[in-house]
Design a protein that fits this description.
alpha+beta, seven-stranded mixed β-sheet, six-stranded antiparallel β-sheet, about 35% helix, globular
């Protein structure tokens, strides 16, 4: 983000929009908390959550992501070498206080959301003015799901977020899940198993920082927030849901469908139906569009 330049264009030319950091850490926190679901794909639960007299801390923000994973968000105005360790400290507390977190979810979002909390991959999102190369290296050494997000303010009303590093701590469990899912797909025929593997590789290969999160009903592919959800194979097809506006797509019967307003597993309003390897090729531009939107 530090190398990104933003310009306001007019008929008379272009004017650079100055970038800046927030005046205070609380300004970043307040902005993100007010729009957390739009910015991060995380439903806001609580601000400055007290961890009790023994632990003696306050978690900047608590939330629940699209897949039901608990999320801790920590903020720093500029560069701060302690943000990752501070977040990991709170993440350890969270894992020891699951019942307390689920009660909070029940109070804020209801019993259904509380029953679907996914504990195999709690997330830490660190939002700061910048990170060092040591920070990026450090997150790759931890077996936790951590996102480093750099922010910048532009002018008086523009906010930019850039994912600097993203690591999924649940990858080993997800690999085992992949083998199980491919085995299930094989029960529907070798072609479905191969198709599921091809889609998985295509989505993971879209760029750096793509994490795969296992849920019983779907696999979510995440770039800070979900951009695709792959459902278990049916007898003759795979269903993928994408974060692409169906209004921007020429819908093709039997291939793409607008499911906005319809109940389905996973997230995304565009359903893509895949039956052959050729369908996977046809869907590549839609995959890329959804990835870019995330």
């Amino acid at each position: 983000m530090s190398g990104l330049k933003l310009f306001h264009t007019t008929k008379g030319g272009v004017t650079e929009v100055a970038q800046r950091l927030a005046e205070a850490e609380a300004d970043v926190q307040g902005l993100v908390e007010a729009h957390m679901e739009t910015l991060l794909g995380v439903r806001f639960l609580s601000s400055e959550y007290c961890t009790g007299p023994v632990h003696g801390g306050r978690i900047d923000s608590l939330g629940l992501d699209e897949n039901g994973s608990p999320v801790i968000v920590e903020y720093k105005r500029g560069v701060d070498a302690g943000v990752i360790n501070q977040g990991l400290f709170y993440l350890s507390w969270l894992m020891d206080h699951r019942a307390e977190f689920e009660r909070l979810v029940r109070d804020r979002l209801g019993a259904t959301a509380a029953s679907r909390v996914l504990w195999n991959g709690p997330r830490l999102i660190c939002i700061a003015g910048d990170f060092t190369r040591y920070d990026v290296h450090a997150v790759r050494e931890h077996r936790r799901s951590i996102d480093l997000v750099r922010y910048r303010l532009f002018g008086s009303d523009l906010l930019g977020l850039e994912t600097v590093a993203s690591v999924s701590g649940g990858m080993q469990a997800t690999r085992r899940a992949r083998r199980r899912a491919v085995a299930r797909a094989a029960a529907h025929g070798e072609s479905m198993a191969e198709l599921a593997s091809a889609v998985d590789e295509a989505l993971l290969g879209l760029g750096d920082g793509v994490n795969r999160v296992e849920r019983k009903q779907y696999w979510a592919y995440q770039r800070l927030r979900n951009f695709a959800c792959l459902c278990p194979p049916q007898r003759s097809k795979l269903l993928v849901y994408l974060k692409v506006d169906p209004q921007d797509v020429d819908l093709i019967p039997g291939f793409t469908r607008d499911v906005s307003g319809l109940g389905h597993h996973g997230t995304g309003d565009l359903e893509v139906q895949l039956r052959t390897a050729r369908d996977v090729e046809r869907a590549q531009d839609l995959f890329r569009a959804s990835y870019a939107a995330a």
